[in-house]
Amino acid sequence: PVVNMSCLLPPGPLRSRAAKAIGFIEKMIDYSIANAPLQKELSAEEVGNAAAFLSSPLASAITGTVLYVDNGLNAMG
């Protein structure tokens, strides 16, 4: 069988109970909203949709890819 390997990492700052343990997640989210090309808060659903896409037949020709789900923040350097 053919195995495609791609990576959905790292998602942008995501509001969650686990993220609250970081202590400054709110500042990270505010920074992302202010500086990313898509100036909005990232949702868990958006990250999940990207993961579902990569594991679906729609991504059957994609391998060796890092997919950033971060509202474009990574593209800003």
Map the helices and strands.
Layout: H1 17-20, H2 25-35, H3 44-54
Pathway: Lipid metabolism; fatty acid biosynthesis
Keywords: Fatty acid biosynthesis, Fatty acid metabolism, Lipid biosynthesis, Lipid metabolism, Oxidoreductase
Family: Belongs to the short-chain dehydrogenases/reductases (SDR) family. FabI subfamily.
Question: Describe it for me?
Answer:
Keywords: Fatty acid biosynthesis, Fatty acid metabolism, Lipid biosynthesis, Lipid metabolism, Oxidoreductase. InterPro entries: Enoyl-ACP_Rdtase_NADH (IPR014358), NAD(P)-bd_dom_sf (IPR036291), SDR_fam (IPR002347). Belongs to the short-chain dehydrogenases/reductases (SDR) family. FabI subfamily. There is one protein chain. The chain is an all-alpha fold and 77 residues long. It has one domain: Helicase, Ruva Protein, domain 3 (Orthogonal Bundle). Helices cover 34% and strands 0% of the residues. It has 3 helices and no strands. It is elongated, with a radius of gyration of 14 Å.
